[in-house]
């Protein structure tokens, strides 16, 4: 009893205003220690039960459920009590007497205690609530919206009515707790303008909540995730709430926050570090799959070797008890962990196989992708997968679902589509967005690639399908008249089909709509351009102009994305000095708030352009920063870990070569040797004749053995008078922009560094080396002689 009161101190407050006649029975119910006692009171007093007592009974029963671990079993247990139906009927008869608060509370509790698909009491309560909707206060309205969300009525007219009420009364709402609940519930029905109004209101009210209000902060982040808006000022404030309450966060809360951050691509290493410590402490606390699977999914990807071993051994022991959804969650986590534990993979795969009929199309795709990534082989399982995917495909009429099914089929070994299935795809193409079309095209290209040796009629059909995909993709781009709507489809596009068939038209469409580029979308669009490797100066000039004019509306976190295309594509906009000066100044005011990986990427991107901001470099090249970065690298996936270290090495080299006055030490000797030992080099005397190699060469990685002269030139071993060092760079297609033979930033920086080291650079571009003019060995030898020695044909 004392425990119940401690956990739910609000019970007395909830019912303190009840009439005197209600109080004795309510007091008795609050003193109950189990469901049996509550139902015994209902049985004895059903003739006089009031609406307040009905509310209290449901509340107490719900509280008992929250104290137990196996929730669903206990819910079933409640419904099995003979007098649960009595309580149910009492509630139905009392609806018209309930005040607004009681009405919605009973709806909430009955949903929790008797979650049946079509409960008549729930229907009656919803109808009565709809009738009273306009008079609900903000607290009651928020709870009612949550009840509708529990019924998955996100797109219902009733939820639309709630959204309208919130929109009309937004200025007068001053309760962020209630508003945050409403924001999550109505997020699917909000326009972009309304979304921004809600974000602004949330910022205005944020300081009115106590720093311990974790649930409010979590709902704010959930709302941002729902509307796909990584609004950094709010995310940072919510993150501070989570950090200050970490010791009180449970497994569910930490798991949800990590998932939300992942969806929003918001990185807080401080939160991850503290969450990892907290979750690691929880490992001995869970001995049942319900809790341990959540722990495995949340902790596994960031756990150290010992923790991973412990997690895997425990989940293996529990494997026989896993449900279909738990097995899928474990397998997905193993993919993220890059697990190679064949015994565990085989065990979880067998559970997936057993439950394969229970999974939905998108889950079957996930299973297919994960098993392929983990190199799992099972002919029997893959045959069953193919049968299920084809079965779903025959009855599906939703374009996005058909695209998922086709994509999953294309991953499976020895899988192909017949003419009937190809015709089914063709029928839905006019309804597809760019993401669906891209999914279809990726699948078709995969089949064509594997089936080239069988040029049969099916492959011919696939080629015709590919042409139709090109047509509808181009048509959708040409018909686009809103950048914001287009961007929802465009931002995740990638792959060969997009690059070869749609990229040029995409750039043309962005040019047509570039007046809509603003402070909210400029960073994402800039990042997208950098990924395409397509240089369009007008687009980049527009991006630079928006940044210069609206820098105060741009968060420092977004500067990296903005700089990337200029750095990657080696382009200076007309107002380059002002543009980069403003970006650097904006960063300098926030250096302490940026995570080490982002600082490294920023430093490298600016260095590629020839900018070396001293404050930024001093923030990176110090013992405290490097120690912090080392601890964070442990939390990154292996590929990102390597990329951060690689960029730090390149930045270190660039600063040592181009800014010796900063006196930043060189500590990547082995890296430089590995990189530059790939360059072909030679030494020529003043008559352009080669000198013996060895005594005159410099080891390109040995920067510490060189010294800086007064003019900052690097000197290595001395050469005979008039002699020069020659470095040949063979430049493949990756060294150039996709659409024009313009050298990209990284290759240009490499050339600059070799020149500083005293080399004369001769670059051999792939489009010259692979041209028809150089199709013979003799022609290539003549070409090299001319480039190196200045000679004509021999």
TrEMBL record:
RAP domain span: 726-786
One Pfam family hit: RAP
InterPro entries noted in UniProt: FAST_2, FAST_kinase, FAST_Leu-rich, RAP
Acyltransferase recorded as keyword: no
Domain of life of the native organism: Eukaryota
Any one Gene Ontology cellular component term annotated for this protein: mitochondrion
Predominant cellular place of this UniProt entry's protein: mitochondrion
Keywords, sorted A to Z: Mitochondrion
Cell compartment(s), UniProt: Mitochondrion
GO biological process assignments: regulation of mitochondrial mRNA stability
Entry protein name: FAST kinase domains 1
Annotated organism of origin: Canis lupus familiaris (Dog)
Organismal lineage: Eukaryota, Metazoa, Chordata, Craniata, Vertebrata
Gene: FASTKD1
């Amino acid at each position: 009893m004392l425990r119940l009161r401690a956990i739910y101190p609000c019970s007395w407050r909830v019912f303190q205003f009840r009439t005197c006649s209600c109080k004795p029975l309510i007091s008795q119910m609050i003193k109950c220690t189990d469901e049996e006692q509550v139902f015994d009171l209902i049985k004895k007093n059903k003739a006089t039960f009031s609406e307040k007592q009905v509310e209290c009974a449901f509340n107490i029963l719900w509280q008992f459920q929250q104290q137990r671990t196996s929730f669903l079993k206990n819910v079933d247990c409640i419904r099995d009590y003979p007098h649960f139906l009595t309580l149910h009927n009492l509630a139905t008869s009392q609806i018209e007497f309930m005040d607004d608060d009681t009405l919605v509370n009973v709806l909430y509790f009955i949903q929790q205690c008797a979650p049946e698909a079509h409960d008549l009491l729930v229907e009656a309560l919803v109808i009565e609530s709809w009738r009273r909707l306009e008079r609900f206060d903000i607290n009651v309205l928020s709870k009612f919206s949550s009840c509708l969300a529990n019924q998955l009525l996100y797109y219902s007219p009733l939820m639309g009515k709630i959204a309208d009420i919130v929109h009309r009364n937004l200025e007068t709402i001053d309760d962020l707790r209630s508003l945050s609940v409403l924001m999550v519930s109505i997020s699917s029905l909000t326009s972009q303008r309304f979304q921004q109004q809600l974000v602004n209101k949330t910022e205005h009210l944020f300081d009115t909540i106590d720093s311990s209000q974790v649930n409010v902060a979590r709902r704010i982040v959930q709302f941002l995730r729902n509307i796909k808006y990584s609004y950094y000022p709010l995310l940072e404030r919510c993150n501070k709430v989570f950090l200050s309450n970490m010791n009180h966060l449970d497994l569910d809360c930490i798991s949800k926050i990590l998932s939300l951050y992942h969806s929003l691509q918001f990185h807080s290493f401080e939160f991850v570090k503290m969450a990892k410590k907290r979750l690691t402490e929880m490992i001995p606390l869970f001995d049942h799959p319900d809790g341990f699977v959540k722990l495995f999914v949340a902790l596994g990807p960031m756990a150290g070797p010992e923790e991973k071993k412990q997690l895997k051994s425990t989940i293996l022991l529990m494997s026989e008890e896993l449900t279909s959804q738990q097995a899928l969650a474990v397998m997905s986590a193993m993919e993220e962990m890059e697990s190679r534990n064949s015994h565990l993979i085989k065990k979880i795969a067998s559970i997936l196989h057993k439950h394969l009929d229970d999974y939905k199309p998108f889950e079957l795709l996930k299973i297919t992708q994960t098993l392929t990534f983990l190199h799992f082989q099972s002919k029997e399982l893959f045959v069953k997968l193919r049968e299920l995917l084809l079965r779903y495909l025959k009855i599906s009429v939703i374009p996005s679902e058909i695209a998922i099914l086709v994509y999953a089929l294309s991953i499976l070994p020895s899988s192909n589509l017949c003419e009937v299935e190809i015709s089914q795809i063709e029928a839905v193409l006019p309804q597809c967005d760019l993401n669906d079309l891209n999914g279809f095209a990726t699948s078709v290209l995969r089949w064509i690639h594997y089936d080239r040796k069988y040029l049969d009629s099916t492959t011919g059909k696939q080629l015709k399908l590919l042409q139709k995909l090109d047509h509808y993709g181009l048509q959708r781009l040409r018909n686009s008249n809103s950048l914001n709507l287009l961007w929802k489809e465009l931002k995740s596009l990638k792959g060969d089909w997009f690059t070869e068939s749609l990229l040029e038209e995409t750039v043309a469409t962005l040019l047509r709509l570039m007046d809509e580029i603003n402070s909210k979308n400029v960073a994402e669009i800039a990042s997208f351009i950098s990924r395409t490797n397509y240089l369009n100066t007008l687009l980049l000039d527009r991006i630079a102009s928006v940044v210069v004019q609206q820098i105060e509306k741009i968060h420092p976190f977004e500067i990296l994305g903005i700089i990337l295309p200029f750095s990657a594509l080696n382009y200076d906009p007309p107002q380059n000095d002002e543009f980069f000066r403003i970006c650097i100044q904006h960063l300098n005011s926030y250096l302490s708030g940026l995570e080490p990986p982002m600082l490294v990427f920023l430093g490298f991107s600016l260095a590629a352009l020839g900018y070396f901001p001293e404050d930024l470099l001093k923030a990176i090249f110090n013992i405290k920063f490097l120690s912090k970065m080392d601890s964070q690298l442990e939390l990154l996936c292996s590929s990102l870990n390597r990329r951060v270290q690689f960029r730090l090495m390149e930045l270190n080299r660039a600063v040592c070569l181009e800014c010796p006055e900063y006196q930043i030490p060189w500590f990547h000797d082995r890296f430089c040797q590995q990189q530059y030992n790939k360059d072909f080099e030679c030494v020529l005397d003043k008559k352009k004749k080669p000198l013996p190699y060895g005594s005159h060469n410099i080891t390109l990685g040995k920067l510490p053995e060189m010294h800086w002269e007064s003019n900052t030139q690097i000197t290595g071993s001395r050469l005979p008078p008039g002699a020069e060092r020659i470095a040949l760079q063979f430049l493949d297609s990756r060294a150039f922009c996709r659409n024009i033979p313009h050298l990209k930033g990284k290759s240009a920086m490499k050339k600059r560094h070799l020149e500083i080291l005293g080399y004369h650079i001769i670059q051999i571009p792939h489009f010259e080396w692979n041209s028809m003019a150089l199709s013979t060995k003799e022609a290539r030898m003549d070409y090299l002689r001319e480039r190196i020695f200045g000679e004509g044909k021999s």
